[in-house]
Amino acid sequence: MAKLRKQRRKKVYRHNVNRKRMRNKLHKVENIQCKQVKDAWDRNKSTKVNLKEMGLSYDPNETIKIPNAKKQLKLKVITRTDEWTEEEIEDRVEVAKNYIAEELEKDAKAPRVKLFRLPKGQVEWISYLIDKYESDYKAMARDKRNYNQETWKQLRAKIKRFKSIPEQYSEFLKNRNLSNSYKEADVVCDSESD
């Protein structure tokens, strides 16, 4: 009965909709940041087909299915076997452009350069604490300029992070006319305080 009601419903032409613009909007490909995907993209095919040909997932819920205990139990009862068949395991579709997925995997596994830097205000705060207290973290926590009331462990972690950034820490040492021996002594002190 519901289907008939839908068919009988009055069709209305929407004059305010530009059909050409709407179609172009639906088929438009946004700016693809990944070079490999952008080069292999076929504008005549849909997004789902393009990604499937490249060996990429359009819908992760469909690609990696969450096992349903109830369905698995039904399968075990019906088939009365505990082992999966080879057909269910080999349910993958042959990929036409599999080199793209391989390139993306290789790019993802490549080592990255750490670009992390502390803000200037935090560097000044940490350098003030190191100048005044050297490695006495509990005294740093009691400092009157510790407005955020950070604990000595939080301060120790911030200083350790500051020392792990070579550009900023080497500049700090250079400004204080300190050598690398001071840096090594700090590392020894930090390991003893742990």
From TrEMBL:
It holds the Pfam family Nop16. GO terms for biological process: ribosomal large subunit biogenesis. Keywords: Nucleus. The keyword Nucleus applies. The keyword Nucleus applies. It is found in: Nucleus, Nucleolus. GO terms for cellular component: nucleolus. Belongs to the NOP16 family. This is Nucleolar protein 16. It comes from Oryctes borbonicus.
